């Protein structure tokens, strides 16, 4: 109860500051927590309206909120995501109107139509011609969050350097990318698929987006899903598949190290890094 009252009082303070509401009575705010790995997110009901409030948590990496706001504004204008009301680029606090959305589950990618809609949104993004501000860079971030005194992390970082070298040899593209394609970042509103949560958006190579999407959502765990999906996004030649696999390993290294920093008491980060090293291509 004490924690709930603390959160409610903080929400009231935020809503008053940004003039979302003039209501000062904590008891007139109804908070419903939403699932999230990094941030504290709530559905806030007040004044017969509903909003979604994001209060950023601590991240192992440095997210540039100014870049996030700029990039999010671009994709709002392009119809690729849902709009926001407030975005404080200093604090990272974001307030949006509450939309009655359907959030993708991992199993939804087994459905051809839902998968195709998700792929189509990514293709629109990559081909949009938008110029994002720099933010999260998968080809660099692993260098900054590695604990080199940890043997497994050091091996994973060495592998990351090797992967980037190979990708430079193959050649990388420079397009607007989302770069955190967990299933929960695909939603449906009014029968249209949108991408949400652009914290890690930046210019990059679309292959990272697809590779990240595949392994985060366990495309390998369903018979033929991976191969069918590769064909659907036109990754067919041996060189294209090599590039995709390099990015897939890089994604695992990136988020494995991220998990080591964010959840040091958990073993998931170690498991991901071990899997990435096992998949290495020499």
Describe, in plain words, how this protein is organized in 3D.
This protein is an alpha+beta fold and 282 residues long. It has two domains: 2-97, Phosphorylase Kinase, domain 1 (2-Layer Sandwich); 102-278, Alpha-Beta Complex (Aminoglycoside 3'-phosphotransferase, Chain: A, domain 2), CATH 3.90.1200.10. Helix content is 45%, strand content 15%. The protein contains nine helices and ten strands. The chain has a five-stranded antiparallel β-sheet, with no helix packed on it. Strands 6-8-9 form a three-stranded antiparallel β-sheet, covered by helices on one side. The longest helix has 25 residues, at 238-262. 33% of the residues are buried. The model is unreliable at 1-5 (pLDDT under 50).
Classified by CATH, the class of the largest domain is Alpha Beta
Distance between the termini: 55 Å
Amount of beta strand: 5-15%
**What order do the SSEs take from the amino end to the carboxyl end, as H and E?**
HEEEHEEEHHHEEEEHHHH
Strand order of the largest sheet: 1-2-3-5-4
- Number of domains in the coordinates? 2
Profile the largest sheet: 5 strands, antiparallel
What is the averaged pLDDT score?
A: 92
Low confidence ranges = 1-5
Protein structure class: alpha+beta
Question: Level of helix content?
Answer: 40-55%
The geometry reads as: globular
CATH superfamily of the largest domain: Aminoglycoside phosphotransferase (APH), C-terminal lobe
Determine Rg (CA atoms, Å): 20 Å
- For the secondary structure, the number of strands is 10
CATH structural architecture of the largest domain: Alpha-Beta Complex
And the CATH topology of the largest domain?
Answer: Aminoglycoside 3'-phosphotransferase, Chain: A, domain 2
* Number of helical regions: 9
